[in-house]
Design brief:
Number of domains of chain A: 2
Strand content of chain A: 15-25%
Largest sheet of chain B: none
Helix content of chain B: over 70%
Strand content of chain B: under 5%
Distance between the termini of chain B: 38 Å
Radius of gyration of chain A: 25 Å
Number of strands of chain B: 0
Number of helices of chain A: 11
CATH class of the largest domain in chain A: Alpha Beta
Structural class of chain B: mainly alpha
Shape of chain B: globular
Largest sheet of chain A: 5 strands, mixed
Distance between the termini of chain A: 74 Å
CATH superfamily of the largest domain in chain A: Periplasmic binding protein-like II
CATH architecture of the largest domain in chain A: 3-Layer(aba) Sandwich
Oligomer: heterodimer
Order of helices and strands of chain A: HHEEEHEHEEEHEHEHEHHEEHH
Chain lengths: ~290, ~425
């Protein structure tokens, strides 16, 4: 072999080395630019963003604005982790303060996934594809102690509140609006746009009780740093929380029924963070 | 002839010295105070060991012999009337004090938050429904008396022995008399054992009080200081009224009345138990002039059913809650509070049962539970002596001036 040939071969190797080196520094994609993923996952990776649908108001400890304007909360951290693992950026879509309407966003393809303290219900499952649950919340009934003392007599027998003159509040479009109608068929059910409005009415004695999940009750009973408004001094004197014994509220993510691969991937992701304890740590940080 | 040691050991001054030094050790050296727990527990167990035979035999023998010799029904009716009157008097006194001092008015935001937090904590712990009046009626008739006795459910045992005493007294031709006499003999033996135990009273009182005082949380006092003051003032007023009533009935000087009642009250203060001073209370009632069978019957019944101190405790707690929530005390509300507090006392005195009184006036019983949990231990030592004194007086006032019933069962057997 001549020296000329050796030079050409060396040049080819050098070129291959530089091409490999420059490719490996390409931004964003963990593997090569050529790598393809399955159908609906590929769509998300190709557009470079995942759109997460969430409730528009602050919903501590799941999603809320920090003092610096950034978003924080259990669901926000989950969404950020998912985006990071998919190698895409994260966009929140929060146009509605009605939980049921979040499902319509997925149907209309305005978002890829719901991550928003979203309860599994058969009715919602007629529209959207739930993942496995990642959290089970206790159901709670907050009651005005004075309005209910005579009816409850210090017991937890909430059936005593099923009376024509009783008014029970719940968040509009949430599972608790349906639960209120189911538990208190004789009572008047008043629906509120936010927990804040409902709890204010309850404290003022306008309604007897307010049905929500335990984290909502805890946000008033044991406020943490992310609850911007502290409850008034007489909160504990006036409001009692009864944790309902029957049935927890399962919380899950949800996708479009056509996005089966995304849904399957989310289930694998959830089982992994359950197994390695990172979900438990996250729940401990925000809820326990 | 008593030795000098015996004279000092048994002198009233030494008992008060034991109370004072026990309190001092408990508050200033709580760690040493709590180390005395084994001695305190032993002394309390010794006391409680004798209560069941003492109470059952006292009721059976006194009720049986009163019925045998006539006047039994009258005695029971009179006792019931006196129990009701004494509880009513205590309730009214507490109501007046509570309305004047207003313990629940003007709580600071910090105190409101602390009380609210305690209520929320209580809500989270609470399970099931609180005991109601019906559960009390059921507890009066236990399916198994031995089981009720072993669980310390005294109300069930009491209603059983009352029935036994009545039945024995009503048996034809007085055939129940030997059993009634037997009960009286066991009663006397129990009293003897009790007096042996009482030889160690200064030691027992010292250890009991130092243990109890070591447990007290002083920081909770500041939150409900006004409530504590209301309790102490009303209980002190009741004590004075009772001493006056004792003086009026016995025609003795206040000092000699105090001397007669001192021992059971001190023991009640130290043990915080209504039952532990039972034997001494029966003794005091006899020494105050009540005849034997009246004292033997009324004091044990009263300790189970009629405790003036507890009625006052509940009335003031209800008033506190009413004032806390800005409820005006009308005559109707006052009456509901009084009746409810008396019912709760008769039914065994659980704070959770105050829903009976507070529910109908639209107030949460949780508030009473939350405020009484921390300050209860500071009031209990004072409540028990009021209960005991009330029952000693009830025996003195219930005395039926019938000559035959003043003869004890043993004496009447001798006569046979």
């Amino acid at each position: 072999m001549t020296g000329k040939h050796t030079g050409i071969i060396r040049g080819i190797f050098r070129a291959i080395f530089w091409i490999w080196l420059s490719l490996s520094f390409l931004p964003g994609n963990p593997a090569s630019a050529e790598e393809k993923y399955y159908g609906d996952i590929e769509k998300i990776v190709a557009k470079g963003t995942i759109v997460v649908a969430a409730y528009s108001n602050d919903l501590p400890p799941f999603i809320f604005k920090n003092a610096d304007g950034s978003l924080g909360g259990l669901d926000v951290e989950l969404a950020q982790d998912i985006a990071k693992r998919l190698g895409v950026s994260l966009v929140f879509e929060r146009p509605t303060d009605n939980f049921n309407a979040l499902a319509d966003l997925i149907m209309a393809r305005k978002a890829d996934v719901i991550i928003s303290a979203f309860s599994i219900t058969p009715k919602r499952a007629m529209k959207i594809h739930f993942t496995a649950d990642y959290l089970r919340l206790h159901k709670a009934l907050m009651v005005n102690r004075l309005k209910t003392a005579e009816l409850l007599e210090n017991s937890q027998n909430i059936g005593a509140l099923n009376k024509e003159f009783v008014v029970i509040g719940a968040n509009e479009g949430s599972v608790y609006a349906d639960l209120a109608r189911e538990l208190f068929p004789k009572a008047t059910i008043k629906l509120y746009k936010s927990h804040r409005l409902g709890s204010a009415d309850m404290l003022a004695g306008q309604i007897h009780g307010y049905l929500c999940d335990q984290t909502c009750a805890d946000s008033y009973n044991h406020p943490r740093e992310w609850h911007k408004t502290q409850p008034p001094a007489n909160w504990g004197l006036m409001i009692r929380t009864i944790t309902l014994s029957e049935g927890d509220d399962p919380i899950a993510m949800a996708t479009h029924y056509d996005d089966r691969a995304v849904n399957a991937w989310l289930n694998i992701y959830l089982s992994q963070i359950k197994a390695d304890g990172s979900l438990e740590r996250l729940v401990k940080k925000y809820i326990d | 002839m008593k030795s000098l040691f015996e004279k000092i050991w048994t002198s009233p001054a030494f008992v008060f010295f034991a109370i004072g030094s026990g309190g001092f050790v408990g508050i200033v050296f709580p760690e040493y105070g709590s180390q005395l727990k084994p001695i305190a527990d032993l002394y309390l167990s010794l006391m409680q060991m004798i209560i069941l035979p003492l109470m059952t035999c006292a009721i059976i023998s006194s009720l049986g012999s009163a019925l045998l010799d006539g006047g039994g029904a009258r005695l029971l009716k009179r006792s019931a009337a006196i129990f009701l009157c004494s509880m009513l008097a205590g309730a009214v006194a507490a109501l007046v004090c509570g309305i004047i001092i207003q313990p629940g008015v003007g709580l600071s935001p910090d105190a409101q938050r602390a009380l609210g937090a305690a209520m929320l904590e209580g809500d989270a712990k609470q399970g099931g429904a609180p005991p109601g009046l019906w559960s009390f009626v059921i507890s009066l008739f236990p399916t198994n008396v031995a089981e009720a006795a072993s669980k310390g459910e005294m109300l069930g045992v009491m209603s059983f022995v009352v029935l036994v005493g009545i039945a024995l007294g009503l048996l034809k031709d007085g055939v129940g008399r030997p059993v009634i006499v037997g009960a009286d003999i066991i009663l006397q033996a129990s009293l003897k054992i009790m007096h042996w135990i009482l030889k160690f009273l200064p030691l027992g009182i010292f250890s009991l009080i130092s243990v109890n005082f070591a447990k007290l949380g002083i920081n909770t006092i500041s939150l409900a200081l006004k409530l504590l003051i209301t309790y102490y003032i009303s209980l002190a007023a009741m004590f004075v009224i009772m001493i006056v009533l004792g003086v009026l009935k016995t025609k003795k000087s206040p000092m000699s009345v105090l001397k007669i009642i001192k021992d059971p009250l001190v023991l009640g203060f130290g043990t915080q138990s209504d039952f532990a001073p039972l034997a001494l209370a029966i003794d005091s009632a006899r020494n105050m002039g009540a005849n034997k069978s009246t004292a033997d019957l009324v004091v044990p019944l009263g300790i189970n059913l009629s405790n003036v101190g507890y009625v006052m405790y509940f009335v003031i707690a209800c008033l506190f809650v009413a004032q806390l929530y800005g409820k005006a005390i009308s005559i109707e509300i006052g009456a509901i509070i009084i009746v409810g507090s008396i019912l709760v006392t008769i039914a065994g005195g659980e704070v959770a049962m105050l829903a009976i009184a507070l529910g109908p006036i639209g107030l949460p019983a949780e508030a009473a539970m939350a405020v009484l949990a921390p300050i209860g231990p500071l009031i209990q030592p004072v409540l028990v002596p009021i209960n005991i004194l009330g029952n000693i007086l009830a025996a003195v006032y219930a005395d039926v001036p019938v000559s035959s019933s003043s003869v004890s069962a043993t004496e009447s057997l001798k006569a046979v």
